Amino acid sequence: MPTFPDAARSALADATQRRNLAHATGIIRTKRAEVVAELDNWEQLRAAAAAIKDQTLRHLDQHLMRFEENATAAGAVVHWARDAEEANRIVIDLVRAAEADEVVKVKSMATQEIELNEALADAGIDAWETDLAELIVQLGDDWPSHILVPAIHRNRSEVREIFRHRMGQVGRPAPDDLTDEPRRLAEAARLHLREKFLRAKVGISGANFAIADTGSLVVVESEGNGRMCLTLPETVISVVGIEKLLPTWADLEVFLQVLPRSSTGERENPYTSVWTGVTPGDGPRNVHIVLLDNNRSTVLADEVGRDALRCIRCSACLNVCPVYERTGGHAYGSVYPGPIGAILTPQLRGTGSAVDASLPFASSLCGACSDVCPVAIPIPELLVHLRTRVVDEHRGGMPTPETGAMKAMAWMFGSHRRLEAAQRAATVGNRLLGRRTSIGALPGPLAGWSSARDIPVPPAESFRQWWKRERSEKADERGAAQ
Asked: Which long-range contacts (CB under 8 A, 24 or more apart) does 80-87 make?
């Protein structure tokens, strides 16, 4: 992947995607604002959600052990995965043990993070996404561009063409008379997925929340496809980030109020599925839970950066971000796009690559993301924190043009004589430029700066020069008066 500035430049040239994004995010923003305004205690709910998350993260080791104990007692098998490779290996072994060569999947950011679908494909196992938007992305050989609405960059006509050309290659084909009417598209997806649900031996999910007190997992969704994956297969495997823990059921009450309002602009989710271990005669016979670290422990050790682990993947920050609205999610080069991706991805993957090092700078720091976050993550503060880290990690060696410019500025401002000399030189530049009010494009490394800004012409007289002249003229006036 290219760095964010390069990828964003390409995305900005796609007028269709920009229209799709502006339309979709605008609708979600409006719906969210309406349902949030109905609650007089919205800010208290945000504060409570943040406090619950902070308390849980401070004692995460204890809550994880209690969750494992209670989940095991309920008949589930708990696995621990240090990283993506170990998690994928565990899942592949479980699918093979179930004698399956395909799985149906609930929409899951964690499985996308570890690239589980790709690992399953390499092992000869087909993974079918069942969320409608994820299905569109998968059939289109695409990449998700939004946390909540992965196919937000696609319009209805594009979806129809994807269904017509790809469904028949992997299952039941789309109807010949398929139109781009939403109802018809949803019907085509339902019929295509039904045969996969009915024959699947294994379902794979993530979890929105994990309850330590009972060992339960919770998934919230809008379509019901996730519930089909959780109830029909004989084996269910859930890949769960360790930060998804909540201590008690009472804590869940808070999050089931803030999550739907922040994500889909609804008062409650249409489907909230909760499962606890194995129930004889009802649901899956085998339940496996893979608790995923994948550098979350490293994030937890950062006293500033750990606030990102509060995230409940609602996507509210994406829908208000002026940068995301114009570039879309692909420019971020990560499964986590937008403001939350700009802070979460560099922490989970590190800032060793040019792509990840560029993400903390993919923001104007306007603060809109922090204002709408239901768990009050101070995203702008974390962005600045990560920018500092990136700069510190790249100190020494061959300086960048920006580093050279900053050192030159520091040298100039380090002496009033050097500063005065620079100001005098600037006034000479004013005379050379004549009556012009601004400078056009600057050359070389400065071209990026001037491409989005009008560079003002240097003043005809600096403040220091004006001050000296005024004092001299007043002294002359006083001398003449005497």
From this structure: 80/290, 80/291, 80/293, 81/239, 81/290, 81/291, 81/292, 81/293, 81/294, 82/293, 82/294, 83/293, 83/294, 83/295, 84/113, 84/114, 84/115, 84/294, 87/114, 87/116, 87/239, 87/290, 87/292, 87/294
Is residue 99 pLDDT above 90, yes or no? yes
C-alpha separations of 54 from 43, 109, 188, 209, 245 in Å: 17, 21, 44, 15, 11
How many other C-beta atoms are found inside a 10 Å radius of the C-beta of residue 381?
15
pTM greater than 0.85: yes
Q: Are 123 and 116 in contact (CB under 8 A)?
A: no
Rounded to whole angstroms, the Cα distance separating 331 from 324 reads 9
214, amino acid identity? T
At the topology level of CATH, where does 39-294 sit? Rossmann fold (3.40.50)
Residue 482: pLDDT over 70: no
State mean pLDDT over 249-274: 95
Cα distance between residue 383 and residue 232, in whole Å: 43
Residue 464: predicted pLDDT: 84
Task: State the pLDDT at residue 405.
Answer: 81
Residue with tokens 């993550």, as numbered in its chain: 377
The bridge status of strand 438-439 relative to strand 455-456 is antiparallel
Percent of the chain with pLDDT over 90: 78
Average pLDDT over residues 81-91: 98
The amino acid at residue 232 is L
Question: Can you tell me the distance from the alpha carbon of 81 to that of 290, in angstroms, rounded to the nearest whole number?
Answer: 7
Among 339, 347, 342, smallest CA distance to 315 is for: 339
Compute the distance between CA of residue 346 and CA of residue 141 in angstroms, rounded to an integer. Answer: 25
Portion of the chain with pLDDT greater than 70, in percent: 98
Distance CA 73, CA 40 (A): 41
d(CA 69, CA 267): 33
Residue 453 CB neighbour total at 10 angstroms: 11
Domain boundaries, the chain: 39-294, 401-442+451-481
**SS3 assignment, position 36:** helix
Measured CA angle at 410 (ends 404, 412), to 5 deg: 105
Confidence grade of residue 465 (pLDDT, cut at 50, 70, 90): confident
- DSSP secondary structure, 191-237, as one string: HHHHHHHHH-SEEEE--SEEETTTTEEEEEESSSHHHHHHHSSSEEE
Query: Which band of pLDDT confidence, cut at 50, 70 and 90, is reported for residue 434?
Result: low
Give the model's pLDDT for residue 52: 98
The Cβ-side half-sphere exposure at 454, using a 13 Å CA radius, reads: 5
